[in-house]
Amino acid sequence: MQPQTLDCHVDDLCAAHGISRVDGRGRAVVITVRHRDGSRERRLEIRIPPVRGQVSYFIALHEIGHLVGHGRSGRRLESEAAAWRFALATALVAPTDATRRRMGKRLRSYVIWAERRASRRQPPHIPAAQDAFWDLLAWLER
Fold first, then answer.
1. 95: phi > 0 → left, psi -120 to 50 → alpha, else beta; which?
2. How far apart are CA 109 and CA 96, in angstroms?
3. Number of folded domains in the chain?
């Protein structure tokens, strides 16, 4: 599928969910704007580059998943896995093996992050061995 088609799909999802798209590195942001009259407005924004191929397409879907997908309010590793599940569920194409492994590499980086902080007074939560998180990671990394 052409990158332009995938980029249009990202634009359509953003429009459907009221998300602003800004050029930048992959990041999802919730902005709270306070108006002079005391009211507040919540704005959803993703910062992503234009879609050039499958990897950037799935990263864009992943960032949208952080804002509107199921499980987005979980702990860090759980919310990362939920965002990747959203990306896989909403994609117009199945990921190639190379794209799938790149997704796995990104998810694995959060596991390494959590393991490095395991000795802290309040360590990050690492899912139990039987958690679906590990099934997703194994599938992405195979």
1. beta
2. 20
3. 1
